[in-house]
């Protein structure tokens, strides 16, 4: 299904959500796994990929590098045996943060690379100092010149690395790079996100020797070569969380059939405390909200398994329509309250204390308005605000939402929401 730059959503709020749904495959697992396909000259088949802009852009970058990509429905067969050009296209790098994940696999394969400072959402300046420090620890030569950074891994050596923060992208880059680097590389203070574990499982299936994925200490014993495999990345826990919060906001009962439960425990705990009913049986999660919710005092984002920063905007929207005061503490990014002004146009009462703290005073009803998405998860939160608002909301710039949600309007319409893309 195609996306157009000027697309908008039209929402008539007030409907409750009912029905059963499966969530799409994880964007943040699929992207580094696609990058890791560069580590072998054999074909890799990645199944059930989400049809979203970031995946489409990643495929464009791989093709620009010389990859042969065959698409069969939502499955991609990627063959990188012919790749020679490794200067990433300037514009494509600018379109998304995930291009940074290519650093580890390209350096492992081609030993040199030049990279523009990666683009991405406007949720923070998104530095890559932790990636650069880690590569320097592994003997990679790094030269920064204006907007470009040049890497040379000719004399790389396995080593111990301690990350100053458990960066997801930096962990994923080092794991990719060290998988075929002779010797033992150890990452201390590694990211524990499920998407990091999924990348490691993919690499292990290719023949990598990785221990400790999902803990804060990952050890990689480099192997000579990795083979082509077939793999299905995990479901998207952020899309799942979005649907749970949508039900909390709209009311109703929905069932999600492909949940992996230890990935959303903090959110489930919060929604239960607010008064939702949640039933969990194997990989099926049923949530219902029939009575008005109670507010919780505060929500703080953190590194996994703490509450995910990617659901912070959605919690902000939920707090807008629940009686009482909620303090939102965004501890990961420094500019992730972009949607506050848009929510205020709908009657929300939010006070920004500083760029990590917001206080929300719940109102009885939000009112419809014409608003615009400014980043990926903030855009999804505005959709949920529209579902709850009285009247007809128009949301512009939905291409931000299309970066990470596979036709969010279709998902919600299938559950009874009155939402259309125009
Ligand atoms: C990944 O981004 C995700 N993106 C983000 O999801 C997610 O919000 C983030 O992890 C945190 O969970 C993908 O997986 C494609 P980080 P990443 O490196 O790797 C700072 C979404 O909505 N930092 O863990 O870029 C950084 O500024 C996106 O799907 C440095 O200071 O996140 C941030 O404050 C948004 N220096 C914090 O660390 C560095 O070199 C966490 O960043 C790298 C990061």
Provide the descriptors you would attach to this structure in a database record.
single chain; 422 residues; alpha+beta; UDP-n-acetylglucosamine1-carboxyvinyl-transferase, Chain; 2 domains; four-stranded mixed beta sheet; 14 helices; 31% helix; 24% strand; binds ligand EPZ
Determine and state the CATH class of the largest domain.
Answer: Alpha Beta
> How large, in whole angstroms, is the Cα Rg?
21 Å
Number of strands: 23
CATH homology group of the largest domain: Enolpyruvate transferase domain
Bound molecules: ligand EPZ
- Hey, roughly how much beta strand do the residues contain? 15-25%
CATH fold call of the largest domain? UDP-n-acetylglucosamine1-carboxyvinyl-transferase, Chain
Give the second-level CATH assignment, the architecture of the largest domain.
Alpha-beta prism
- Please mark out the parts with pLDDT under 50 across 5 or more consecutive residues, or reply none: none
Instruction: Give the strand order, joined by hyphens, for the main sheet.
Output: 21-22-1-23
* Span of the ends, CA to CA: 14 Å
